[in-house]
Amino acid sequence: MTTASDQTPRQAWLSVLATADAAQLQGLWHESGFTPEFDWLRAPEVGAVMTRARMGGTGAPFNLGEMTVTRCALTLPDGTVGHGYVQGRDKVKAETVALIDALMQGSRAHILDEVILAPLRKARHARKRVRAEKAAATKVDFFTLVRGED
Amino acid sequence: MYVAVKGGERAIDNAHAWLAEERRGDLAVAELSLAQIREQLRLSVNRVMAEGSLFDPDLAALAIKQARGDLIEAIFLIRAYRTTLPRFGYSYPVDTGRMTCDRRISATFKDAPGGQVLGPTFDYTHRLLDFKLAADGGEVAKATTATAREDDTPHIASMLQAENILQEEPHSDQEPKDITRRPMSFPSDRATRLQALARGDEGFLLGLAYSTQRGYARNHAFVGELRIGRVPVEMEIPELGFSIEIGEVELSECETVNQFKGSKTEPPQFTRGYGLVFGQAERKAIAVALVDRALRWQELGEDNLGAVSQDEEFVLSHCDNIQATGFLEHIKLPHYVDFQAELELVRKLRANSMTDEENEA
Fold this sequence. Notes:
The complex is a heterodimer of chains A (about 150) and B (about 350).
Chain A: H1 9-18, H2 22-32, E1 39-54, E2 61-75, E3 81-87, H3 91-104, H4 109-137
Helix pairs in contact in A: 1-3, 2-4
Chain B: H1 9-24, H2 34-40, H3 42-52, E1 54-55, H4 57-66, H5 71-82, E2 87-93, E3 100-105, H6 156-162, H7 190-198, H8 202-213, E4 221-237, E5 242-258, E6 271-278, H9 282-295, H10 312-318, H11 321-330, H12 336-360
Antiparallel strand pairs in B: 3-4, 4-5, 5-6
């Protein structure tokens, strides 16, 4: 397993894109104004990935069950290859991710990072925090009423 | 004996048309959207994902709508759909220690690091019908918030392991068997059992787990830890040569801590049962953990008490509700020829026995 701290930049952006909210991603992509030409290397296809887990959380691996995943690969006119791997059955999202992945390898990466990836990272963090804060409010504070020995 | 028979096509078409109409129900009532099912019947969605063995809330919602709320029928639809999907590969084992917990409780340690976090639970509700929900458009009060933990929540098992009093869970990267690729064979192994139990019928496993509590292969379980939340799913992408996070799944994880006096092969210690299930499904996760522990009797050198929960062939062959319902329900389909043969046989036997009686008389 890779932890967030030892991800390469490409691993990091692909991970952020894969887990982004589809509607938000499309919105940001359209606003960014990029409309690159491309050719498919692999048209979007829906498939399954078998998720694994470990016995007792830490022991030997076992197969838990599948999840749906959509993937595609494309190439820009300059030959840069972009990959899209996203959870669920969303061919448009996979295409957008692959396009952003390809463009992120070029000279305009800093623009894309600012207008697309930064808001997605922020949203991802916020999504997580909202639930964590609600969970925190349900944490039990124990207090002792009366102790029998007094 | 199977004989091809034709006919009934018109009746079948008409039956299905009526089914569609019944599914829609009264037209004066608004139609359910998939988003409504996904958001408001989430625990049904979770059950369909877990037992359908495919994590996809939108698909599960569709299956529930199509199946008119019959969850086993919905699970059947998901199982059928998943066979059409190409397999892209296997994820890395998810790290439940990194789970963003909505809920995390321990029945064994009051002051567990990370605390007792109740989450959105039915526990401590009074189980009284809430007639406010019968009225439309009621405003829902916003859930209270508090400062969130930044750190991962440690597993309770790690506390007991520090004392060396809990059976170790040997770490390995051995390739597990996959029941979706090769049929189960017996004796099986724990990886196979945990996969089969994760997609097993909740009701069946609940009954089995309950039987272990009532004394059939008693193994006195404590819920060491129960946690529900989301974990990232990471997968190696061959064409990239590195791994990325491809998504996130919600899981319920239960680890039981069981009294164990020791056996010929193991010293006195606590042993463990483990249940991991897609979605918020804690009843199922606890049941899986209890049944997992009961099935480990052999590896722990315990006695076979002849309880069904110790019989892996029995448990694993009957916990799949799609296999079960397929075989059970097929007997309602036409067996005219089989029955005709039986009928002939019984008539003949009856006639013979009558003649014998007459001869004796």
